[in-house]
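Our platform keeps sequence and structure together, in a single record for each protein. This encoding replaces a full spatial description with a residue-level series of whole-number codes. We quote a single record here, exactly as it is kept in our systems:
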Amino acid sequence: MSISLVINANQYTNTKEVFERTLTSPVKLNQCLEAIKTYAFVASEYPLILTLEDHLTPLLQAKVAKMVIETFGDVLYYSGSDTITEYPSPESLKKRIIVSTKPPKEYLDKTNSMEKNDEESSVKMKTSPEDDPWGVEICNPIEKHKSLNEDQLDENFQYEEESVKQNTELEYKQLIAIQARKLKGGVQDWLHDDPTAVMRISLRETRLEKAIENHATDVIRFTQRNLLRVFPKGSRVDSSNYNPLVGWCHGAQMVAFNMQTHGRFLWLMQGMFRANGGCGYVKKPDLLLKNGPDDNVFDPKIPLPVKKTLKVKVYMGDGWHLDFKRTHFDIYSPPDFYVKVGIAGVETDSKMKKTKIIQDDWTPKWDEEFQFPLTVPELALLRIEVHEYDKTEKDDFGGQTCLPVFELRTGIRAVPLHDHKGDKYNSVKLLMRFEFV
């Protein structure tokens, strides 16, 4: 799990007045640190990575270091060295907080001016397809729509991070267990793998998409030893979300949620992290960690032979009459439900299918089976949505869930559905069968 704090301060700032600031109201840093300490391991014991994106002088960095050390105490992880050649496993870092860095202070004025230009340009952006009540259909992991000013913004809007400078106070320097590299030169320079040290780089979504156009295998090779953090482009001021599959399919370990609205991209994130007991960490498949014959690196764009076929049978659904009012879907008649079943994963595997509509029935029975050939089942998520057909208006939402294919087990299952926000319904379930052939 990862949390990013943007820390700003002026020359009059004292220890208690260092702020975590984004485009929302500022919050005092000590309040953020206390909240992190209180809730960091409530849901999971696995480590929390704290990215400090600071715009501070060395003197204020020393004050921040003191606050962090006093707040976290023994929970704080120290690497014990300026450089490490391999990251420890999450299992060995349970109940530890790990600090990572940080844009350099000399980029503060430049970044602020770019933020202003970006905000002014983003007003002209078109409404995002994610404003649709159910979000956009997910077929290709890379979004196709582009705003008019996006390419220009991608060149100018920069949040690059770099390693701590030599003049940074020692106390602050010692906090940093995950070093970050400043982006210099071209894509191949960003993705240079130093065998003597591991590090992290951060790419906004559009930079990642441009990098994988011609350097997909270089991105994956880099993430075999190093960390890649992906975050939304700064022009997403229209409450739209980006597709996390782009990062996951190319080995990125830290795909920032930063979700602003509910919809299918958020459901994918919720589905992915239902794996591994919901602890917040999901192991990357071996195909992203190990090379094939002749040192070949996996490339999500290259079609592969079908590895296995998932057969999904939808028998029936029940529970809506318990969780919804009788007039929720139709005032004068029972609902007309249908199910959408599909795969989100690499482009070759991504597809969506639909059952027939069962009219006027609170307990619909479909008895329909679908087959999904999978070339990369390790990266596939099973998408399930129920909608209520409406002849005159937009179909009503009846429930959804997203499940990691690699954790599905053969057999008949009662599959709980969730609401639009991702909260599980008390009673609504689908009776389904999963089978791999």
In short: The first strand starts at residue 2 and ends at 8.
